[in-house]
Amino acid sequence: MMALTQPQSEKKAARARPMSGKAVLVLCAASFFVGLLLSGRMTILTSPPSATRGASSSSGHGSRIALFSDDDCEHRRKLEEGSNPNDVMKEVSRTHQAIRSLDKSVSSLEMELAVERAKRNGGLGASVPSKGLPKAFVVVGINTAFSSKKRRDSLRDTWVPRGEKLRRLEKEKGIVVRFVIGHSATPGGALDRAIDVEEAETRDFMRLDHVEGYHELSSKTRIYFAAAVATWDAAFYVKVDDDVHVNLGMLTNRLARYRTTPRVYVGCMKSGPVLSQKGVKYHEPESWKFGDEGNKYFRHATGQIYAISRDLASYISINQPILHRFANEDVSLGAWLIGLEVEHVDDRSLCCATPPDCEWKKQAGNVCAASFDWSCSGICKSVDRMRAIHSACGEGDGAVWNFAAAA
Which cellular component, as a GO term, is one annotated location (predicted)? Predict the structure, then answer.
């Protein structure tokens, strides 16, 4: 038995013997050079050295992307001659970094190309012009309804400037504020005429080609962003409900942090339950799409207030005919963006509670950008309480005028 088991033990030992350092080095180097050989087909897209240098200095969409420079080629030749293992690993890491950078550049170019197609009416939805539009830092669209005149007046008496101050805010600070509303089911009827009269007096409306209705908020949101990006060339577009208190100075300063970030989505991110039971508030008729009963939605900004950057508003404008609308407007927006390369910013300053919460934070030096009551999905009895909340939690009338939008 011992004579039989000894060879088996020797075989096991042979199988367990580790590879030598030289063999590992040869295997790594071979894998690296095979990768370079396979990626060689991409060099067809690159320009000759002289053309590459010219292309790198141009900014047009027709410029070619240079995957490797002359220095890279020389470095690779020396690497092949020397075959230093440390140099090989450094080159692998360098290549991975270059690929990640290229992926980001391609993603940005794809969005720009989509906008260019829309300009030529080659996109799915409305075109997105970039020239000739008034410049702005942020467009604040306040979602409102025909029956909400008292709410609108409560905002005009607190955080929404009136008349000349509104025009000056737009011209000097790049902050556009408008009440957003569509038309009634019978255009030109009494409801529409009442808005016409109010608009003639206040000049603070943005009228949409949309039939008003609570169950049409997803459509209204989609149309609002498309109309806003076609009217103003802004860095950000905000949607806020007309029963929310906002400090415009704080809002704009917080958004300014992300001005250089492409594809940014700012709000109080949440993940609430998917309500499949009929008859309850926020019922989701398409609950089956979100998995088994009891599941939660994907992370998205709560609907009281949120902001998106211009490139995302352009995306919505271009693709609006094929953007699916769920029952809840905030879920719809989250669904439109969840599959994109988007930075989700969870900013809790946009969802402070009403006094004493926002008042204590103000006293501590942390002024809130927006305040409302979660229990009411807005400020409870906002018409009666807005002035008191503004007095307790407002940033002061001069704060917004200290905002300096970067060029």
Answer: Golgi membrane
> From first to last of its 407 residues, what are the pLDDT tens digits of the chain?
444 444 444 444 444 455 555 555 556 666 665 565 555 444 434 444 444 444 444 444 444 444 445 555 665 565 555 556 677 777 777 787 777 567 546 655 665 666 566 556 554 555 455 568 999 999 999 999 999 999 999 999 999 999 999 999 999 999 999 999 999 999 899 999 999 999 999 999 999 999 998 778 999 999 999 999 999 999 999 999 999 999 999 999 999 999 989 999 999 999 988 888 888 888 888 888 888 888 889 999 999 999 999 999 999 999 999 999 998 999 999 999 999 999 999 999 999 999 999 999 999 999 999 999 999 999 999 999 999 999 999 999 889 998 876 54
CA distance 331 to 273: 11
Within a domain: 68: no
Q: Is the dihedral of CA 267, 273, 279, 280 positive or negative?
A: negative
- Whether 48 maps to a domain, the answer reads no
Q: Inter-axis angle of helices 70-82 and 85-119, to 10 degrees?
A: 150
Task: Identify whether 183 is part of a domain.
Answer: yes
| CATH number for 291 | 3.90.550
For 5, 57, 100, 103, the CA distances from 38, given in Å and listed in that order, are 47, 29, 18, 18
Q: How far apart are the first and last CA of the chain?
A: 86
Helix axes 217-231, 310-319, angle to 10 degrees: 120
Distance of alpha carbon 289 from alpha carbon 328, whole angstroms? 14
- What does DSSP say about strands 343-346 and 264-270: parallel, antiparallel, or unpaired? parallel
Range of the domain at 249: 135-402
Q: Is 305 helix (H, G, I), strand (E, B) or coil?
A: strand
**The amino acid at 246:** V
Global model pTM greater than 0.90:
no
- In the structure encoding, which two tokens stand for residue 331, read together? 């879920």
Phi-psi region of 92 (alpha: psi -120 to 50; beta: other; left: phi over 0): alpha
Strand-pair partners of 59: none
The tokens for 217 are 């908020």
Closest CA to 340 of 304, 312, 381, 361: 312
How many structural domains is the chain composed of?
1
CB 209 within 8 A of CB 171: no
Separation of alpha carbons 222 and 240, rounded Å: 14
